[in-house]
C-alpha cells in the first residue's frame, strides 16, 4: 500500500519548490541479499536516525515494504520522509507507541514481520527538567510496543535502538566497553533507555520475542533536529551568534556519520543474531571545545585560535555531564560493518546541508538554539488536523487520540485488556 498524502498543511519552500524537493536524497552505502517477506515497521521514522534508515531500506530494497510509524513530535518532520512519497514500497502511519490501539492497528493492517524501534525522547538536556516524559515515552512506550508485538505474534525480528549512554561514564584510562559491561546510566535519559532495554531483554527471555539491542555512539549528519550540538552550533554560526559551550568544553564524545549508522542498522537487520546486543562504535573522539574550533573553521576566515573567546560563550554545565563514552564495536565488525566516513568529511557534508536547508527544514527553531531549551509545546490536536483535510494514514476509529495526550498506565492496561478479551 503506497503512501497516502502529505500530513503537513503548508510545506516550507526553497524557491518555488518544497524544501525537501531541492535536497539530496541521503542514504547509506550497504546492501545485502534481500530476504523474503520483509514488511518493516520503523517507529520514529520521521525523526533523525529513523528517517535515514527508512530512506535507505526503501531505496536499496524495493522488495521490502517500509512503514514509517511516527506521532510527529516537535523534532520530527514530514520533510524527512517526503522524498519517499509515492513509492509503492513506502507507507506512513501516524501513531504513538504509547497507544496500544495505534500500534496493533499498524501491525495488523500491514502484516508487519519486522520492527525497528527508534521512537524515543532523546535530548539529554530536556531529561533533567522533564524526566517524567522520558519515562512515559521511552519506558512505557517500549513496554506497550513489546506487549503489542507479543499479542500480534507474527514479528520475526525486533531491533531495539539503545544508546552508549546506558553504560555511563568511561574514564580516560579505561578500555572501550564490550556489550557485556555493566549498565550504569547517570542521567534520566540514559536511565530511561537502560530501563527500556531491560524490558526488551525480559520479553526476549519470557515471551521469546526475537529481539536485538543496538547501542551506538553519538550520530550526526543532515536531518538532525537542531537541539543537538552539531546542528545547533551550525545554525548559531549562520546567525552570527556565539557558540554556547557547557562548562569548560573538555567533555568528549565519539561521533558517527548518519550514513554509517544506517549501514550499521542494515547490517543488524540482515545479519544480526537474535538475543545479541551490538555496539556501534566510532573511532572519531573529540571534545566539545575542539568541535567548536572545527566548526568555526568552516565559517571564519580569521585566526580562530587567537579569537576563540570572541566566538564562544561558556555557560552553566549540565547537572551531571559524563566526561566521555567509549564502546568496542568489534562484534558488529565481525558481521562486516565498518565506519566509512571520516569526521572531517562527515562534518563538511553536514555543514553544507544545514547552510542550504537547516533554517527551513523544521520551521521556526529559534527557541531550540538556547543552551538549555525549554520543553516543547504539545503537538497540535489530531482531530483539528483531520478537520483541515490532511490525509495522513490515521488510526482506525476508536484508536484515535490527541497527539499531545499522554496515555496513563491504567488506560494502557485497560486498552490491552479489552484487546485481549
UniProtKB/TrEMBL annotation:
InterPro entries assigned to the protein according to its UniProt record, in alphabetical order: dTDP_Gluc_deHydtase, NAD(P)-bd_dom, NAD(P)-bd_dom_sf
Cofactor(s), by name: NAD(+)
Pfam families for the chain: GDP_Man_Dehyd (PF16363)
CDD domains cross-referenced by the UniProt entry: dTDP_GD_SDR_e (cd05246)
Positions in coiled-coil regions: none
Protein name per the record: NAD(P)-binding domain-containing protein
GO MF entry, a single one: dTDP-glucose 4,6-dehydratase activity
Keywords: Lyase, NAD
Keyword NAD set for record: yes
Amino acid at each position: 500500500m503506497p503512501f497516502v498524502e502529505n500530513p503537513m498543511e503548508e510545506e516550507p519552500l526553497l524557491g518555488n519548490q518544497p524544501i525537501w524537493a531541492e535536497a539530496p536524497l541521503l542514504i547509506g552505502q550497504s546492501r545485502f541479499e534481500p530476504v523474503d517477506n520483509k514488511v518493516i515497521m520503523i517507529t520514529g521514522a520521521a525523526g533523525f536516525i529513523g528517517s535515514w534508515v527508512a530512506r535507505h531500506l526503501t531505496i536499496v530494497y524495493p522488495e521490502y515494504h517500509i512503514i514509517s510509524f511516527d506521532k510527529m513530535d516537535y523534532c520530527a518532520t514530514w520533510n524527512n520522509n517526503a522524498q519517499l512519497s509515492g513509492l509503492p514500497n513506502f507507507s506512513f502511519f501516524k501513531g504513538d507507541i504509547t497507544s496500544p490501539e495505534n500500534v496493533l492497528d499498524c501491525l495488523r493492517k500491514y502484516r508487519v514481520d519486522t520492527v525497528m524501534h527508534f521512537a524515543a525522547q532523546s535530548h539529554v538536556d530536556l531529561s533533567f527538567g522533564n524526566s517524567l516524559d522520558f519515562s512515559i515515552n521511552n519506558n512505557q512506550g517500549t513496554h506497550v510496543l513489546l506487549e503489542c508485538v507479543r499479542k500480534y505474534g507474527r514479528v520475526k525480528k525486533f531491533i531495539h535502538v539503545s544508546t552508549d549512554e546506558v553504560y555511563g561514564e568511561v574514564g580516560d584510562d579505561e578500555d572501550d566497553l564490550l556489550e557485556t559491561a555493566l549498565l550504569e546510566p547517570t542521567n534520566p535519559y540514559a536511565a530511561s533507555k537502560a530501563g527500556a532495554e531491560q524490558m526488551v531483554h525480559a520479553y526476549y527471555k519470557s515471551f521469546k520475542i526475537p529481539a536485538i539491542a543496538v547501542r551506538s555512539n553519538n550520530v550526526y549528519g543532515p536531518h538532525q533536529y537542531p537541539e543537538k550540538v552539531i546542528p545547533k552550533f551550525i545554525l548559531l554560526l549562520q546567525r552570527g551568534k556565539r557558540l554556547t559551550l557547557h562548562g569548560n568544553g573538555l567533555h568528549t564524545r565519539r561521533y558517527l556519520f548518519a550514513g554509517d549508522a544506517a549501514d550499521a542498522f542494515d547490517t543488524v537487520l540482515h545479519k544480526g543474531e537474535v538475543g545479541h546486543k551490538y555496539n556501534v562504535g566510532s573511532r572519531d573522539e573529540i571534545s566539545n571545545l575542539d568541535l567548536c574550533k572545527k566548526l568555526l573553521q568552516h565559517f571564519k576566515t580569521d585566526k580562530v585560535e587567537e579569537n576563540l573567546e570572541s566566538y564562544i560563550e561558556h555557560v552553566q554545565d549540565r547537572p551531571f555531564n559524563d566526561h566521555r563514552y567509549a564502546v568496542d564495536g568489534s562484534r558488529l565488525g565481525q558481521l562486516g560493518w565498518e565506519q566509512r566516513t571520516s569526521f572531517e568529511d562527515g562534518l563538511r557534508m553536514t555543514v553544507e546541508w544545514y547552510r542550504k536547508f537547516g533554517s527551513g527544514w523544521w520551521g521556526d527553531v529559534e527557541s531550540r538554539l538556547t543552551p538549555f531549551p525549554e520543553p516543547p509545546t504539545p503537538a497540535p490536536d489530531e482531530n483539528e488536523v483531520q478537520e483541515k483535510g490532511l490525509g495522513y494514514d490515521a488510526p482506525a476509529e476508536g484508536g484515535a487520540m490527541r497527539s499531545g495526550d499522554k496515555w496513563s498506565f491504567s488506560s494502557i492496561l485497560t486498552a490491552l485488556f479489552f484487546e485481549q478479551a
